Amino acid sequence: METITLNNGVTMPTLGLGVFQMRDPDQCERTVDTALELGYRLIDTAQSYGNEAAVGNAISRSGIPRDELFVTTKIKVANLTYDRARTSLLESLRAMRLNYVDLLLIHHPYNDVFGAWRAMRELRDEGFVRAVGVSNFPPDRLEDLVLHGGETPQLMQIEMHPFNQQHPSMELMRRHNIRPEAWGPLAQGKFGIFDNPTLMGIAAKHEKTVAQVVLRWLLQRGVTVIPKTVHEERLKENLDVFDFTLRDDEMLAINTLDQNLTVTPQMREPFWIDNLSSF
């Protein structure tokens, strides 16, 4: 597995498993079990996913040394205050039966972000967290945190795929040495991604699948990826992206697919924020 180094010196894998929408505990455990057996070492969960305990069960059962794993979780909006952020992380650690997480993220840029950010940095200094970052921040909110939060995040997780390439956010992260990480790297199967002629043509030339081409394109852009699947064959497929390289003209061809399409068009609407605040 290839790795990268974050801006605070912490090393992490470039590809992992996201467990969003795996609400069935047994299914989540089985999927993480299989992923770990196949060689995955980065597991991405969140409080709002409701499956931290299932992830912890699979990790405990795996027998893999803790320092060989990279575990990410996220603080939900309702817990984004100074006091609640601290309490909520300790609850997450108990649920997963872990002494620390490798990466802790603010899940959405709402509530008392700056208070939570201060608590997260203190938790890292106390050894409960190794790296801190954010998720789903638009460029203006990310810049605000960088300028006024006392420290640059180590990573930002954001929706990113060929139809939403996030150029302003990518430029901002490059400028501040923040690692980009793509959730929904396969657009959750939307927008006809698996039938796209450009992607299919490139995949055929490399004798790879469209999914593998998209993941490779993101990796070559310097983006960490956490594709979600519950199927063993796709877990294997998603992991098999380190034995080929896309040419410059192929990268450029995929770059032309950007249409600023999002799988969550309501993300910044008031009703969406109302719903998030109850979780």
UniProtKB/TrEMBL annotation:
Marked site (Lowers pKa of active site Tyr) residue numbers: 74
Catalytic residues (positions): 49
Keyword Lipid metabolism: no
Pfam families: Aldo_ket_red
Residues that, per the record, bind substrate: 107
InterPro entries: AKR, Aldo/ket_reductase_CS, NAD(P)_OxRdtase_dom_sf, NADP_OxRdtase_dom
Occurrences of domain NADP-dependent oxidoreductase (ranges): 15-257
This protein's UniProt keywords: NADP, Oxidoreductase
GO molecular function terms listed in the Swiss-Prot or TrEMBL record: oxidoreductase activity, acting on the CH-OH group of donors, NAD or NADP as acceptor
Residues in coiled coil: none
Key word DNA repair present: no
PANTHER family: 2,5-DIKETO-D-GLUCONIC ACID REDUCTASE, NADP-DEPENDENT OXIDOREDUCTASE DOMAIN-CONTAINING PROTEIN
Protein family membership: Belongs to the aldo/keto reductase family.
Name listed for the protein in its UniProt record: 2,5-diketo-D-gluconic acid reductase
Lineage of origin: Bacteria, Bacillati, Actinomycetota, Actinomycetes, Bifidobacteriales
